[in-house]
Each structure stands twice: as C-alpha cells, then as structure tokens.
C-alpha cells in the first residue's frame, strides 16, 4: 500500500503567530469512514497510527481497523503504538541508564561514535521511590531529609547527573520535588505535544508510558498513558513500538452535581466499586456526560489514578475548559494552552456537551446518588 493517506492528511494549524503541521483526522474520516462517534481515547491512537504510517510497522489496514471499531465496538487487530515520551522512577530508571552506558561502551569498543547512542523518545526520570523519612516533627525536617538523601545515594545521583548531561532527550527530576505521577501531572504533561522534526514544527497528542503503575493519573489531564514494565519502557525509549490489541472502551457517564457534604473521596470510591463490579481489566475507560463540567481536574486525576485499583488500562478524561484552567493554574505557557485548545477542537478531541460516543459497554452514575463513605475498595 502507498503512504497516500499520510501525505494527504498532513495539514497546517495556525495558533496565534505560530504554525504547526499535524495529521488531520477529518481527512482520515473522509477517506476511510466517519469517526465522529469514535471514543476520544481511540482517536488519540488513530492519530498515532496515521503519524507513524510506514507500510511496515503500521499499515493502512491498521488504521482502517480502528475506524471500523465503531461497527462492533470491538476489534481483534494488533497495532504498533508509539508513545510520545517515557516516564521513569529511580528504581527502574537507573538500570535503564546503566543499559545506555553499556551500549555506549560496546559502540566504543567497536570503534563507533558513542554520541549516537541516545534515547529516541524524550525520557523524564523522577527520583522519588528511594526517598526515606529520617527527620520529622520539625520546621526543617524537609531540608534535613533532602540533605541526608543526597548523602545516602550520592553515587547513584552522581551517575544520574552524568546521564542527564551525556544523553539527549533525557531529564532527571531531583529528589524532594514530588512523586513521579504528581510531577507528571503538574509540570511535565502538556496535553498536546509539539516539537521540531526535520525543520518542521509538528503538533500531536501528548502520550506516554511509565514505569509506575499510577502513571494513569495523567489521563485526568487528557493525556493517554499507563504503566508498563522496565523492558517495555526501555524499548519505547529507544523508539520501538508497543504491540497492543485495539482495546475495548467502557464509557462511564457522569451526570448531575455532588450534594453538599459529599466529598471527592466518596465519588472516587463509588466509581471504583462500580468499575470493579463491571469488569474492566485490559480495557480503556472513558468518562463522559454533563457531570464532567463540574468535576475539578484534581478529582479527575484522582479517579484516573485509581485505574490499577479498578483494573483498567486507563481512565481517560477528554480535554475541555477545566483542562485549560488547570494548565493555567500550574503555570503552563499561554501559547501551549492555546495550542491545546485549538488542536483538540480541530481533531475532535475536545469534550462537548451532549457527546455520545460509541462504547463497548457503558455505565452511568448521577452525582446525587453518591452517599458519604458509600463504598470501600
């Protein structure tokens, strides 16, 4: 097959004074079939396949299978998915850097250029798992703990600092900054990613895999991501696709408003119980309904963070005004926020009131039915 679809879907998006190239899903729909009611989480996968269409790892039949998913709300086809970036914590990240260093040694022994050994996808390593609490109940406990941590793991941190200075597309977040999935949500996640590729400014959905099971928290920001093992993360870091079946998607409709006295914890526990009973292992969960308009992003992130507890691959919340408000609250640049809004609206990733995607199965919950401490996982 030819790469005609990829070529013809490439277009330009103007956002303020900036120009971005992107792969237009409306052109894919024109050629292969309507995708209006395709779940937004699957539209993210669809764009990924179009962008990496090469007639080798990704063929046009893969894209057609994802478009045709709407017919039966199921597909048995295996696809090659390439996340935009990789998130690691220190326990799994250190071995990955050791592997990269070993690869450079091997290249050097063969007379090659060691500078060519680098991650092909951006990698963020957040140091949080090795942090211990030695001091407490004092005003300077935090500073003392960080100081002790630096002394205790000096050689490890010196090695990671070398890695950050030596490898391209590799950043280290130092200890004392926060836990990895929280740092990812507040600082690293972009919702829509943009980068220079061969002299072109390309925009596409922010996606990732991480070596922490609660990487799923980022889905509250409209970023598709989930946890994987260290070997899979290293493969993604080196540009290798992740092989996966096109997933079933369970729709969870939220309506109404929370009653006074009912907390976000009550809602999260209720949602978790319902999804456990429904059975969502190995599936995507996508939230929709007018109830999202009053659900703060912190609560969305908490529900998404519970994905390992209810068994889903991820719990995805589409991008909307609340997403943009959170990006502003956490200090993202206005140009980045403008790109998130313009791109998601252009690509059908923006949540609109009244959206009714096709799902494999659905659940619904009215906030008014949520009781205090209504369930415990």
TrEMBL record:
Similarity annotation: Belongs to the aconitase/IPM isomerase family.
Keyword set includes Endoplasmic reticulum: no
Gene: acnA_1
Record-linked Pfam families: Aconitase (PF00330)
Keyword NADP: no
First-tier enzyme category under EC: lyase
GO MF term set: aconitate hydratase activity; iron-sulfur cluster binding; metal ion binding
Organism: Proteus mirabilis
UniProt EC number: 4.2.1.3
Cofactor: [4Fe-4S] cluster
Protein name: aconitate hydratase
Taxonomic lineage: Bacteria, Pseudomonadati, Pseudomonadota, Gammaproteobacteria, Enterobacterales
Highest rank taxon of the organism: Bacteria
Domain Aconitase/3-isopropylmalate dehydratase large subunit alpha/beta/alpha, residue spans: 69-366
InterPro entries with a match to the protein in the record: Acnase/IPM_dHydase_lsu_aba_1/3, Acoase/IPM_deHydtase_lsu_aba, Aconitase/IRP2, Aconitase_4Fe-4S_dom
């Amino acid at each position: 097959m030819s790469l005609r679809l990829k070529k013809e879907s490439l277009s330009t998006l103007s956002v303020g004074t900036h120009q971005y190239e992107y792969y237009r899903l409306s052109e894919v729909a024109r050629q292969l079939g309507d995708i209006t009611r395709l779940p937004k989480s699957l539209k993210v996968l669809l764009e990924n396949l179009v962008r990496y269409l090469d007639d080798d790892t990704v063929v046009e039949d893969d894209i057609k299978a994802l478009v045709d998913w709407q017919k039966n709300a199921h597909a048995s086809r295996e696809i090659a998915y390439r996340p935009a970036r990789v998130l690691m914590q220190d326990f799994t990240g250190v071995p990955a850097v050791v592997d990269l260093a070993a690869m450079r040694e091997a290249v050097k022994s063969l007379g090659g250029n060691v500078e060519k050994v680098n991650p092909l996808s951006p990698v963020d390593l957040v140091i949080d798992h090795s942090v211990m609490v030695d001091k407490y109940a004092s005003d300077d406990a935090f500073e003392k703990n960080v100081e002790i941590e630096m002394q205790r793991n000096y050689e490890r941190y010196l090695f990671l600092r070398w890695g950050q200075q030596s490898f391209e597309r590799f950043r280290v977040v130092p200890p004392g900054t926060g836990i990895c999935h929280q740092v990812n949500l507040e600082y690293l996640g972009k919702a829509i990613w943009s980068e220079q590729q061969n002299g072109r400014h390309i925009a596409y959905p922010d996606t990732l895999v991480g070596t922490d099971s609660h990487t799923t928290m980022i889905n509250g920001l409209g970023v598709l991501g989930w946890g994987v093992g260290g070997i899979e993360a290293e493969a993604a870091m080196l540009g290798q696709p992740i092989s996966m079946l096109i997933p079933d998607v369970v729709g969870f409709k939220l309506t109404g408003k929370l009653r006074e006295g009912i907390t976000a914890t009550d809602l999260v526990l209720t949602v978790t119980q319902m999804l456990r009973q429904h059975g969502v292992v190995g599936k995507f969960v996508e939230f929709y309904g007018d109830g999202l308009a009053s659900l703060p992003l912190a609560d969305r992130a908490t529900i998404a963070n519970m994905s390992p507890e209810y068994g889903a691959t991820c719990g995805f919340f589409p991008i909307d005004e609340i997403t943009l408000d959170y990006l502003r609250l956490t200090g993202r640049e206005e140009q980045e926020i403008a790109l998130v809004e313009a791109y998601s609206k252009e690509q059908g990733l923006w949540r609109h009131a009244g959206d009714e995607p096709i799902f494999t199965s659905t659940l619904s919950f009215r906030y008014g039915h949520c009781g205090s401490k209504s369930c415990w996982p």
